[in-house]
Amino acid sequence: MTTYFDIPANMLISALADKLSDSKDIVAPDWSEYVKTGVDRERPPTQENWWTIRAASLLRKVAKQGPIGVTTLAQTYGTVMNNGAGPNTPGVASRHIIRTALQQLEVAGLVEMVATREVDTEDGKQQLYSGRRLTSAGQKLLDEVAHSCRDAANEMYPGLAKY
Fold it and tell me: Which residue has the higher pLDDT, 104 or 153?
């Protein structure tokens, strides 16, 4: 059986974005056409379906590296900030975009929060989380999309056929 590890990321993410666009839970918010994807960016994205592409990419990242948190994902999606004559520093991506897309993936049942422990606070007990991980429904969706992309991947990269 083909898994998402067997298919190159560019092919898997575009096919997964097409599949997620059919879902009623993954919808771009109203503010998504005006927002930048990070502090190091100058303009908003120009693609029409950039929200579903980002959600598909986040789903793949959570599957490969999960449990993973929003801050780590923001650092992964960020680039290098140009500070003029000063040294370049890392620029993080928008945590709000990542958090909202992950919440939509949670509502769709593809991702879940991983609880670590409970702590006592002044207001009572509070649950701490170590990040998000893939659910069985998310695993099934990723593997279905990977299996549908297998023939195209073999044509584009003939060396994949032996795996």
Answer: 104
Q: Do strands 89-91 and 111-121 pair parallel, antiparallel, or not at all (unpaired)?
A: unpaired
Task: Report DSSP letters for 101-140, one per residue.
Answer: HHHHHHHTTSEEEEEEEEEEETTEEEEEEEEEEE-HHHHH
Q: What's 154's domain CATH number?
A: 1.10.10.10
Residue closest to 39 by CA, chosen among 98, 94, 100: 94
145, 67, 143: which is closest to 112 by C-alpha?
67
pTM given for the model: 0.88
In-domain check, residue 1: no
| pLDDT tens figures, 4-56 | 898 899 999 999 999 999 999 999 999 998 998 888 788 888 888 999 999 99
Other Cβ atoms closer than 10 A to 84: 6
Q: Which two tokens stand for residue 123?
A: 């207001």
